[in-house]
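User: Teach me something about this protein's shape.
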Amino acid sequence: MKNDTFLGHPKGLFLLFASELWERFSFYALRSVLVLYLTALTVDGGLGWSKTNALRLYGIYTGLIYVTPLIGGWLADNKLGQRKAVLIGAMLMAAGQFVLSAINGGLYAGLSLLICGNGLFKPNISTMVGDLYDPNDNRRDSAFTIFYMGINIGSCLAGIAAGIVSAAYSFKAAFFVAGLGMLAALGLQAFFAKHYLGSIGTLPAAKKAVAENKTALSEQETDHLRALLVLGVFSVVFWAGFEQAGGLLNLFATEQINRTVAGVTVPAAFFQSLNPFFIIVLAPLFAWIWVKLGDKDPSFTAKFILALIFSATGFLFMLFAAWQSRDGSKASMIWLIATYLFHTIGELCLSPTGLSMVARLAPARCLSLMMGVWFCFSALANFIAGFVGSFLDDWGVLPIFAVLLAVNAIAAFTLWALSGKLTRWMRKC
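Assistant: First, the predicted structure itself:
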């Protein structure tokens, strides 16, 4: 199947691209309205929760979303194989969305199904992207950037769809639409995976390693894992700020941004589509730049440093917005748009790079597990994001944005200081 190509890449990449697109459509449709659903008055179709409790639940939910891939990766490596894990995960997530849409009082049951399903789906579909390529194939970084575009096309469509449907009908209708997206992902994997992926993802990697007597880690593999884990810690800083998008920034857009354009009020959920829109526009440019640079392509560490700098800059813009709205007036949406733009540029430096890094550094026999470990860093970041957001009522937005700016800037400097050691650990990569 590797020789069956389209646009210079295996056709299987585009199947995985489309599957992830619809899975991310489902995820982000829910994310776009979850906090709004929790905090809306019951007469408006919401649950009437306080902002503090809503943001805490949001942080717990998004955190667990990134913890369960550790379990799902292990199950795929040792028991199921990636393909079967992806199918089961898709079914669980579809069920979760429909529970949220159809059952009163089904909040925790629906979210639990989504958390479990995501744990099986997320690490394993990313692992299969890497498995399409030989270890030294220079198309791998470009492939993950293309794959990442699928994520963000789905996210972009989700914010628009969820905003329109929730405004015109109800929050539960938005959850139903999210469920339809998950069914699309399930159908693609169920009917086309065998043809376009061949045997990829069918055999648990750990069982294959045992058969080949490749179980002990070499010194080089140990160094690679050290580098991966250190960079994972710094990714937590980035994602803890970035994930304010669905919570703190969403509420700020609702309450403190002037959303009127030509007499029309823009739904707050629409701003959730800015990030994926910028990804779709900029990802081909970044993919071209990385390839064009060739041997001068920045290292994994350098790209992470750039991501943290762009994140800090984004929160600088939010400081301006918070200052503008400090007396009860509305801030210009330009500040929010600029924040999403700079955070998106940072994301393009860090997220596809991180996936490619795991695919390149992690031993093949535990690749899905290590992909799960990588997502655990995002889990920690989301817990922190929810915790930080929960101080909104006590602190206000200005101190929170200032802290996030400072932490990202300090992290960028610290990572620069460690870059030499990380380069030595990642030798021959």
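Now, about its shape. The two ends are 26 Å apart (CA to CA). The chain has a mean pLDDT of 86. If you'd like, I can walk through any region in more detail.
User: That's plenty for now, thanks!
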